Structure formats: C-alpha cells, structure tokens
User: Which sequence fits this backbone?
C-alpha cells in the first residue's frame, strides 16, 4: 500500500510508458495502459473474482485513478482482446468514468459487451468498432494496430501487433496454439510471423500456463474423449461447463447431433452466449437440435442432452439447483451421465466435491477432468509459450497475466530460448515500464492499483477496515452491550441490554450474560467515580475488560461493541 | 438432519453392528463402532478440519450421543490405527466422556497421544496398551484382535484383523503399499495373506485414493527427486511439510547428512514429533546433524537445511512467519531453495500460491509437487486397493474413509475384481450396518452424527444458528439501531444511535445514516400511535423497513439489529 501515492511523472519525449493496472499479481483484473506523449491506449478492462479473505465482495475492478487524475492525457481508445469477464467485466463500471472512449474489438466480443451493458440500464451504449479484418490497420494517434488470430477457449481472441514510435509491441492476451480447434480456426502463425518479420521490440505474453510442461491439450483430444462418453451413455447426458466456453458447447452440440440427441440449454448466460455466437455464425447448430425442455421432457433419455452452467458448484447455477431439487423442471435420474467439462477454479474444490457426491448418490455417473481429458485449458503450456517467443523473436520480453510464480517461470522459459536476462522485465501491478527504441526499464515509479471492490451498488466504498470487520465478525461474531447511565447518579439507569450474534447461542449462555451485566455495572460505577461522564473512556474500558473476560471464559474473541448513553 | 433422532435398537443375538460415526462423507473425523451384544469396540477418535462455511470453528469431532445415551453398552476399548489427527484428534474431547476406556495402539501413536494430552492439563492421562507385537492376539470380550503392518506416511500404521463371532473383519485404515518405504518396513503382505487364509467375512478399506489410476508413488521415487534438488541447491535448503510426515523428514535428514548439511527444525509440533520418533528409534539421525539455529546462523548456506511447517500457507506456521519477516531469526535470502513437500489440502490453494509468489519475489527457488514428484500421497491408488482386495479375498466389502465419490469409485473397483455388487455396502455416517455370518445389510436405521464443533473452549455449543449468523455477518456486516423511546410521549427520546460494522465505511455514509435516523423516528412515531409501547412490534417493524431501505440504497443485506428501550 505504501507505493500507491499520486505521483508526478514527467514525459520524456521518446519514451513509451507501459503501465499494467492489473493482471500481474493475480489471475484476472486485466488492464494495461500504453502511453506516448500523453496519448493513451488501453488494452482490456477486466474484473477479478474475490478470494475468501473478501467476504461479501462481488468482484474487484482495476483502479483507474492514474487516468482520472490526469485529465490532460487523451484516451485514444480501449482495445478488448476477447470476451471473458477477466478482460471485459469492468467495462460497465469504468467506461463511464473514462468518458466512453471507443472500444475496438472483434464481433463476438462486441455483441457480448453490448448485451451485458443492457443489464446496466442507467449507462450509455458504448461505441464499438470492429478491428479483426484481415490486413486491417487501425491508426490511433501515434499507434498503429494490427491484430492476429489466436486460440483460446472463446472465439475471436485477438493478439495485438502495436506499432509505436519506439518499436513494435506484440501483446498476446490469453492464448494457446491449437492445430485442431473446435468452432474456431487455428491461430494464424503465418500472420504472426509476417507481422513480426519487420522486427519486434517487445513481446508481452500470457503466463498462466508457464508452469506446465509440454503443449496444451488440443480440443481434438477433448472431442475424442467426449465422443467415447456420448457413445456409451445409457441415458441423458448433462454437460456442465463455463457459459462462455463456446468451443465445448459446439462439441456437445455436434456430438448430440451425431448420436441423435436433442439439446436443451439451462442457464441464462449460456443461452445468451449461444444465441450471440449462433447469430454471428460462430456456432454450427442444425435447425432442430436446440429445443426447450418442455418439448424434451417426454423423450427417450438417450435422445436428450442438457447443457448447463454450474460446473464450479456455484450456488445460483443450474446444476446445483437440479441436484438440490430446486430446479423447476429437472431432477437427476438413474442412468444420467454428468460431465464436468471445466477445470476447478481454486477455492471451489469443496463445493465441486459436494456436488459430485450428491450427483452420484442420486444415481448419476460422473465424469470429471481428473479421470479423462474432457477439458483443455485455454492457456498455452511451456512449449506453446516458447513457440510464441520463437515466432516473434522479440528484443525485450515481459511476461503478463498470472501470479508471480507464473511470471517468473515464463521469464525462465524466455531465457531458455535465448532472450538475455537483462532484456526481460517482470513487472508489478502499477509499475511504470519505460520502453525506448534502445532499452526497457522497470522504473521505481508506481501508479495506484489498490483494490477497487464492487459490493452491490457500491463501487470502491468497501475498504480495508470494513473487510477486516467482516473477517472478525465471521470468526467469533459480535457482542453488543447497551448501557444507559443515569446522569444524576452516574450509575446504570437499568440493567444493560446485551445483544450478540455469531458468538454463543444466547439461550444457553445465561450465566455468562449475567456475569457480563454485573461486570458492566462495576466498570461504569468505577469510571464515573473516577471522573465526570466520559462516554469514550467508558466505552473503551468496557470493550477492553469485557473482551478479556469473554476470552478467558470462552477462548473466543468476538467484536465487543459497547454503546453508552446518558439519560 | 431428519435422520438424527434417538432411536431404540433391539439387539439381535447373532448380529454384529458396525456404525461409522464419521469418515464416510468427508475426509477426516474417523470413528467406527463395532458392537456385539452390547459390547463395543471403537476404532479411532479423529477430528475433521472445518470448511469455509464454518468460520471461526477450530474443528469438528464425532458425535458420540449413541454411546453416551446407552450407558448399558460396555466399551471394551479404543483401537487407534495411527497417529494422524483425523484418527486421534478427538481423544482429548471424547475420552473423558467415554470414561477413559483403554486405548490399544502402537508405540509411536501412544507417545504422540500422551504428548498431546499434556496440552489439556485438566484431563486424566489415558491408559494405553501396545498391540503391534508380531503374532500378538488381544482378546477384548467377544473380539479377538491381531494387527498387521501397513504403509502410510507415518510409521506404526496398523491394519486390523478382528475376529468376531460372526466372522473376521479386515479394517485397513489409511494405507498404501510401498515396497521401498523410508523410515519404515514394507507392508507385511505375508501376514495379511496368512491372517486372511482362514477366511475373511468383511473388508473395510481406505477409499481416499480410489479415484486415482495405477499405483501410488513410492517414497523411493520421492527420495531420488529430493536427492537431485539437494545435489544442485546453491544455498540453504528449506523443506516445508506436514509436522507428522516422518518419512519425509527422515529423507531430508539423510540427504542433509549425505550432502554435509546440518539440520535445524522450525515448528513446535515438528520438533516434538521428531523427538518422539527418534526416541523410539524410528528415525535415524547422526549425533551432530540436528542443531539449533544459533549454531547454524553463521555457517555456509550450502551447509544448512531448515525443516519447517507451513507448506499449506497456514498463518501460524514457521514458513509464513519467515516470509512475512515476522520470524525471530530467519529471513529468506537469495539462493535459498524452498521445497514444498506436501499436497495442498483443498481450500488452501490461494494461501499456498501467495506464499510461493512471496518466496520467489524474495529470491528463493521454489519446488512444489506439481513440478516434480517430491510428495507421495499416503493413500493407495486403484492398483493398491485391488491388491488389498485380492490379498484378503473378502466375502463382503465396505469402502471407508473418503467422500461419497471415492467410496463409490472403490465399490466399482471391488466389483471389477469380482466382489458381487450385492455383497458391497456403501454406507453413510451413522448408518447401522448389520453383519451376520451369512449376510451384510445397510439398515435404514441411523444414529446421530450431526457435527459437533469445537470453537475455543466450547465443544458442541456452536450450532446452525450461530454459524448462519457468522456467514451473514461476514457477507454484509451488521447494522445496529439503538432507539430510546420517551415513555411519556411515545416519541424518540433523542436521536437514535447507529453502529455498523462490515457494512459501509461510516464516515463516508453520513447521508445514508441521516436518512435512517429520520426513518427510525417516523416508524417509532407510527408504531406508538397505533398501539401502546410494544417493544417487539417496534423492533420487527424497524428491522423489516430499514432492511428494505438499506437494500434499495446499497443492494446489500446487512444484519439489521434494532434495540428499542423505553426511558
């Protein structure tokens, strides 16, 4: 936190500044600023999901103080590389504050962004331009942008080749190389090589898979394994995956068509994404394949595929509602085959285990990615990453996207394919990187990147203190003492009121409460004897002494909150 | 919860009852009751660690109502299979309530149990008898017990061959087969085969690894990989693992001796376990190998090994103190090699990632089990489990230890090696299993197994309500309104006091608070106009209306707690 003060930064004329506002110490919250002579390009506006130390928080978005505090800097546009929430999720919260710069992206991302914006009825419709045409060059101030096609697990993922006055920067975003992708073309290696042939100053490349040896698994392998499951399934197939994992959804639709199954979709976001992708021609679905549940419910189970959300055990998603018998139509039945076609996001392991257990108890056969390759990561492994470095042959290298251990592993990889260590920069969030035609430098200067948390309608109003209070409350609860002091006598006006939640079950702790009431009376009489009525002094004394008393009796430390009022 | 009532159970004369009080729907809390004509043998008294839905809870212990409510049943003894906390951890909480039955176990478990009991000074010293001598037969009422040696990741792990009037039961506890174990002998296959040669009625076997194909990795492989790391380490080696993982500690000690390093131990429980194991001759340590840090601090880093706890990112353990610069002596320095020699317990992934990131940032080289086999599970994989079934050739089979998906996978394995499906019982916690010489039956009868939670000094006093309150408090905090009502006018005596924690940052929400105060005054004046002062009615109206108001303004649902007092 120390590093995050507002700082004055002089503009050196021939220096390009790269400022990662997120994505370098975590997975998510991706946003990078490219700045040349006060002209700014932004790449991605993503969100991050909170961890267990942030109870109640919906998500975290990038801190854009650097931009809002420098109105003299001109934002030329926002480039969106693909339509995952860790790259587009902060748009409804931040675009407004940035005065609606034009968004440049590919068609699928455009439609998904526009659709999501509709949930925020008070916001303007963003202006979005399409930039993925072949050989299209987009001129934005001093920058000239070309894109190249990459594989990820959503179509229309754009790699960026950004010509700047100090040299060309390749920015990969999340990617992998897949020679047999589904519902997508292979990454455009020749375009990458061509664009790179004029010389690449800096490669900024996805590090999420940098700790995994080998090549990432092709969607073709996934397809073969799914085919085996489809061929054997004795009844309905329920495939749970991320709602944006369009390649997996395409696979399930093709296999359903092959095995003469109709498909129904459960989950609002999944339905929306399929509709958008189908409309754009990114999904191939035969006319009669998709049906609603009403049409299907009486069919032979072997003719039914259900695609749904909830592979992470999310409490609001379709799959958990089905298992908990809360879904309006669907129940698990004996003979169902349930396929978890996704990795488990850290933190969700227990929820997924419970879900699996319940499915099996209810008679389903469950397949998950530890048993069989039925999910492929969207991120290239070490060999993919080395291939990207070899294709682009950059002078300088900067690993992006991922935890420090991943960035560090990626830096080691780059060194192993002959990028000199001194040409590699592992940066931190907010750190200002200076690129010239000759050099790269991670400066000691930082812009603010502390967490901006979204909680309900509040954006950025939850800080460290509120979070710490939530943690304390969740561990041992709260213990409130309300004491009215008679202004004439300085003694308790009546028996103090005690309210407690999350600490002990009150009905079973009468004796403890009696003792606390007695102690409260003693403390107040002592305090008012020592000096005239001093609310703060009484309150602090009550908090300290009753806190110690409760800890001695229970070994728990509830938040002790005395309220003292004179009447 | 519905199933857990006190029930009357008639004793059929030739029936053995098996009642798992824990361990069948989770990992941990292992405790099984064997009952024949009101005579009871208990196997293990373990605890379970809480998940994220149980904030503040220290751990969960088995529910022993079935035993305490039936004093007519005689407890013949408690058999402890090995000294892991999920098998011994509940002893200090439950032995007392069971009137201190004799514990039967192996020497290492005995000493670890006695040492831990010292932390509970108000308890009696348990009476413990040793039962792992070769060919020793322990007669306990109608039961006759022999043990056989198994591999796990702690020495002295006992498999049980329990002769009962209805047939012989094999009970494996957590185990694997390791032909090259460290600080241990291989599992005693010939004794297992010999004991089984007289016929096995029922095999109860560990399911934790039942979803993993192949054989579990041998400690020999781990040793070879650790050797490679030790051979290359340019400076100090810091190896973090579980404090009870004695085989791993032995490996690190041998390798340190091989590479001429002295060893220092950081972490109280690890020190204690090493002392106990060394005293029993279970660890081989040369006279000068173990030294304290003071002696070591000035040595050549290449001569130093530090063994410590904290591989799970636990906030109180040595490794995190070192990284956070809170350790009294140790800091990470460039050239350190840190080895995470343990799996990650689900729920700890983010803490471990943060720890790894910090270590790398501070200059350490980090090795973890995803990069290299430097940790082996203590649980047999599918081929080990099939081998156990083939060695014992049981008539009936009951998978134990693990989540339902593991039990179910283990049942499938058993069927694949020709145990008929109708002879396999997948039971639930608390379910009464009836075994006769001819049959096995999972009855519809259940004994109570609902969670007993330990929180500080409280055992079992935290229930659903307190936990739910903690969850609510952690999500959106608490909002307390204290309103004094003038008994003469029925109006507010003074401006209501508002205290809130974990909801909004109060200083920045003055307007919201003003509005709530106004609303409070309105509600009270309305309520006291409608009828005479009715505290409960006013309180409920305040809670509902202010709750709705706050949600509308913030989309958050803090716990609203009105306190209304007449003055």
Assistant:
């Amino acid at each position: 936190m120390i590093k995050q003060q507002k700082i004055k930064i002089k503009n050196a004329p021939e220096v390009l500044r790269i400022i990662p506002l997120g994505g370098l110490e975590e997975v998510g919250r991706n946003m990078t600023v490219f700045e040349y002579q006060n002209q700014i390009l932004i790449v991605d506006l993503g969100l991050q999901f909170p961890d267990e130390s942030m109870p109640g928080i919906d998500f975290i978005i990038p801190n854009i103080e650097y931009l809002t505090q420098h109105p003299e800097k001109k934002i030329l546009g926002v480039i969106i590389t693909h339509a995952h929430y860790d790259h587009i999720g902060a748009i409804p919260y931040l675009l407004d504050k940035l005065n609606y710069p034009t968004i440049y992206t590919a068609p699928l991302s455009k439609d998904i962004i526009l659709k999501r914006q509709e949930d925020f009825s008070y916001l303007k419709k963003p202006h979005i331009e399409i930039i993925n045409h072949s050989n299209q060059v987009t001129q934005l101030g001093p920058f000239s942008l070309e894109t190249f096609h990459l594989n990820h697990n959503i179509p229309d993922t754009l790699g960026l080749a950004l010509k700047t006055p100090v040299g060309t920067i390749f920015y990969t975003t999340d990617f992998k190389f897949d020679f047999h992708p589904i519902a997508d073309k292979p990454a455009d290696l020749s375009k990458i090589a061509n664009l790179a042939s004029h010389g690449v100053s800096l490669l900024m490349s996805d590090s999420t898979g940098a700790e995994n040896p080998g090549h990432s698994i092709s969607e073709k392998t996934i397809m073969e394994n799914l085919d085996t499951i489809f061929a054997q399934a004795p009844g309905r197939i329920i495939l749970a995956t991320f709602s944006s994992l369009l390649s997996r959804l395409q696979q399930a639709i093709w296999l359903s068509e092959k095995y003469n199954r109709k498909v129904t979709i459960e989950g609002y976001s999944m339905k929306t994404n399929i509709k958008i992708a189908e409309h754009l021609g990114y999904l191939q679905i035969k006319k009669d394949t998709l049906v609603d549940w009403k049409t299907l419910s009486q069919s032979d189970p072997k003719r039914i595929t259900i695609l749904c959300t909830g592979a992470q055990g999310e409490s609001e998603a379709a799959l958990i509602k089905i298992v908990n018998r809360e879904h309006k139509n669907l129940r698990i039945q004996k003979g169902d085959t349930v396929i978890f076609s996704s990795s488990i996001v850290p933190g969700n392991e227990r929820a997924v285990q419970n879900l699996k257990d319940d499915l099996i108890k209810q008679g389903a056969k469950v397949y998950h990615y530890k048993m069989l390759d039925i999910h492929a990561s969207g991120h290239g492994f070490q060999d993919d990453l080395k291939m990207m470095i070899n294709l682009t042959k950059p002078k300088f290298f900067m690993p992006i996207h991922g935890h420090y251990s991943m960035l560090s592993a990626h830096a080691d990889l780059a060194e192993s394919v002959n990028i000199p260590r001194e040409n590699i920069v592992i940066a931190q969030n907010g750190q200002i990187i200076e690129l010239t035609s000759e050099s790269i430098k991670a400066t000691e200067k930082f812009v603010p990147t502390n967490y901006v948390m979204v909680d309900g309608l509040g954006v950025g109003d939850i800080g460290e203190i509120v979070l710490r209070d939530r943690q304390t409350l969740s561990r041992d609860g709260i213990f409130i003492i309300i004491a009215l002091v008679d202004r004439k006598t300085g003694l308790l006006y009546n028996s103090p009121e005690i309210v407690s939640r999350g600490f002990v079950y009150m009905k079973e702790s009468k004796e403890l409460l009696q003792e606390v009431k007695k102690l409260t009376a003693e403390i107040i009489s002592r305090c008012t004897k020592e000096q005239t009525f001093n609310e703060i002094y009484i309150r602090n004394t009550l908090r300290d002494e009753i806190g110690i008393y409760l800890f001695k009796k229970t070994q728990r430390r509830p938040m002790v909150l005395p309220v003292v009022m004179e009447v």
In short: The first helix of chain A runs from residue 65 to 68. Residues 477-566 of chain A form a domain with the Ubiquitin-like (UB roll) fold (CATH 3.10.20.580). Chain A touches chain B through 65 residues (CB under 8 Å).
